[in-house]
């Protein structure tokens, strides 16, 4: 029999959970990105940034695990690798209820998933984490690679695209949505999990908690402090908008539809 994480009791797990949640600062999901003039990426000036939505889901899941199981979670640590401004999303994470945070400040440098995974491995070791819950993908690079690479570097089991996380004794049971059904996996701690859209609905941080979070300590490191030298292995040659869609044609009858399809050589 399995128990939902939110229904688990501390006795069923022999180890306390030390959760690491990596969160990325990305252009807000509600904003339509524009390609910059040099066609090297998207325009970031004057654009609103927020926490990547899949990271928000990962954060929510870790908070629910902690709240539903008194004593089971020793700590939740959030980490972001990005510019100094990524502090904002760590403050949001603190306002929502994580215990501690680290900003790995890389300035304006774009960091590839392999580099992110290498930095995260160091943070896992530093924080002695035994479960890492990441988003399945960052909506800016759409890479969907970091969790998998981290699991490889750590040599930990990984369960990607989780839509449900449960406990059974010392096992973690993860359900993944796959085409036409569900795939259920079992793993022991330590484990890497990446979150799918339907795992939960993230909460909003309350105003008083946002104010309180401003005063909470936030650890700031550089990659070199973790023994990492940033090195790019990929070069972006060009970023292009999709081709503009031709306007549609309104037809009055089936006959006209058929003749139009013939005209466009669609049939
Ligand atoms: P990606 O592989 O880039 O699509 O990202 C997948 C997940 O890895 C994200 O949802 C985050 O949980 C984590 N991640 C990626 N980049 C960063 C970053 N710069 N800082 C913190 N976490 C990150």
Automatic annotation (TrEMBL):
<keyword id="KW-0496">Mitochondrion</keyword>
<dbReference type="GO" id="GO:0009063">
    <property type="term" value="P:amino acid catabolic process"/>
</dbReference>
<dbReference type="GO" id="GO:0009055">
    <property type="term" value="F:electron transfer activity"/>
</dbReference>
<comment type="function">
    <text>The electron transfer flavoprotein serves as a specific electron acceptor for several dehydrogenases, including five acyl-CoA dehydrogenases, glutaryl-CoA and sarcosine dehydrogenase. It transfers the electrons to the main mitochondrial respiratory chain via ETF-ubiquinone oxidoreductase (ETF dehydrogenase).</text>
</comment>
<dbReference type="InterPro" id="IPR014730">
    <property type="entry name" value="ETF_a/b_N"/>
</dbReference>
<comment type="subunit">
    <text>Heterodimer of an alpha and a beta subunit.</text>
</comment>
<keyword id="KW-0813">Transport</keyword>
<dbReference type="InterPro" id="IPR014729">
    <property type="entry name" value="Rossmann-like_a/b/a_fold"/>
</dbReference>
<keyword id="KW-0249">Electron transport</keyword>
<dbReference type="Pfam" id="PF01012">
    <property type="entry name" value="ETF"/>
</dbReference>
<dbReference type="InterPro" id="IPR012255">
    <property type="entry name" value="ETF_b"/>
</dbReference>
<dbReference type="InterPro" id="IPR033948">
    <property type="entry name" value="ETF_beta_N"/>
</dbReference>
<protein>
    <recommendedName>
        <fullName>Probable electron transfer flavoprotein subunit beta</fullName>
    </recommendedName>
</protein>
<comment type="similarity">
    <text>Belongs to the ETF beta-subunit/FixA family.</text>
</comment>
<dbReference type="GO" id="GO:0033539">
    <property type="term" value="P:fatty acid beta-oxidation using acyl-CoA dehydrogenase"/>
</dbReference>
<dbReference type="GO" id="GO:0005759">
    <property type="term" value="C:mitochondrial matrix"/>
</dbReference>
<feature type="domain" description="Electron transfer flavoprotein alpha/beta-subunit N-terminal">
    <location>
        <begin position="39"/>
        <end position="230"/>
    </location>
</feature>
């Amino acid at each position: 029999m399995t128990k939902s994480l939110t229904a688990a009791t501390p006795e069923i797990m022999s180890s306390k959970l030390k959760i690491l949640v990596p969160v990325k600062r990305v252009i807000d999901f509600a904003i339509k990105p524009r390609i910059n003039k040099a066609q090297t990426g998207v325009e970031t000036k004057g654009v609103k940034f927020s926490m990547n939505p899949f990271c928000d889901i990962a954060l929510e899941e870790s908070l629910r695990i902690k709240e539903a199981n008194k004593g089971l979670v020793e700590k939740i640590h959030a980490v972001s690798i990005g510019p100094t401004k990524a502090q904002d999303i760590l403050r949001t994470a603190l306002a929502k209820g994580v215990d501690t945070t680290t900003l790995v400040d890389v300035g304006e440098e774009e960091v590839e998933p392999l580099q992110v995974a290498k930095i995260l491995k160091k943070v896992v070791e530093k924080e002695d984490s035994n479960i890492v819950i990441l988003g399945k993908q960052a909506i800016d690079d759409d890479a969907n690679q970091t969790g998998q690479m981290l699991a490889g570097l750590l040599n930990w089991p990984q369960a990607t695209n989780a839509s449900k996380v449960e406990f059974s004794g010392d096992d973690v049971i993860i359900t993944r949505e796959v085409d036409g059904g569900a795939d259920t996996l079992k793993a022991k701690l330590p484990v890497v999990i990446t979150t799918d859209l339907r795992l939960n609905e993230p909460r909003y941080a309350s105003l008083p908690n946002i104010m309180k979070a401003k005063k909470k300590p936030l650890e700031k490191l550089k990659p070199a402090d973790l023994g990492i030298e940033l090195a790019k292995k990929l070069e972006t040659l060009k970023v292009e908008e999709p081709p503009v869609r031709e306007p549609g044609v309104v037809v009055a009858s089936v006959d006209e539809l058929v003749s139009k399809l013939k005209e466009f050589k669609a049939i």
